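In this section we walk through a basic example: taking a raw amino acid sequence and producing a predicted 3D structure, encoded as discrete structure tokens. The instruction is simple. Fold the sequence below.
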Amino acid sequence: MNRFAQAQKSDLPALTALWQTCFGDTAAQIEAFWRALWPHIRVFAAYDGNAPAAMLCALPAALVDEAGESFPAAYLYAVCTAPQHRCRGLCAGLMAYSEDCLKKDGVRFSTLVPSGAELFGFYQKIGYKTAFFNRSYFVPAEKGKAKITRLNADGYRNLRQMQLYGAFLSYPLPLLQWQADAGTGLFRVETDEAVCCVAAELSDGRLICKELLPDCPEAAARLAAHLGCRDALVRTDGGETPFGMVKPLGGFAAPQNAYLGLAFD
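The resulting token sequence is shown next.
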């Protein structure tokens, strides 16, 4: 019989190996994640004997509603099951266990971003509802007038919060700092049209704007040129593309249409 529990630091080598098997990241990338965020997150695992057969990380977050009220939330991340243990209900059982633990600690909402379109149906079966939508597009790099400033986590969080209206997922500083360190950086881009915040990563000569707020193609084009990229892939608010899901942990109302653009994918 499988055992569910919160993972301990002594489990990290086995958890790293499981993560590598399921997602293909390097050991160095995963170990950097543990070093930066282990004190701030909770990791749950399903054990086959003493070895983790499935795992998930609960990252701290807050769900801000349309009225501006903030509620404790968790962003479930790196949800995975070892190939030899799949199709046995292990992941669903682990999620139920972790949600119960989080609920007891006062977390009101569990959120996640499915790693593939085919997983929306799986999560829907265990109580999750698609509630986070965004849109994406490409824009070619273009030089021009813009003031570009690299931000620290605190500066980015402040600018981000100012740009968002309606319901959205908010992150604490350690997660934003992790994004800054693991990616290319967090930026303020000021054009004649807008003052934007951008969470940026580079991939084979392309700028990935994991978040651009407010939507301003010109800002993405200017930042892409500034960083020597040929073009930019932008993810921003608005649109109808399903992106993330939410599950209330108790008798709370889930948002119908909210924003979760900055995912740690």
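Looking at the output, two observations stand out. The longest strand covers residues 231-248. The chain has seven helices and twelve strands. In the next section we compare this with other chains.
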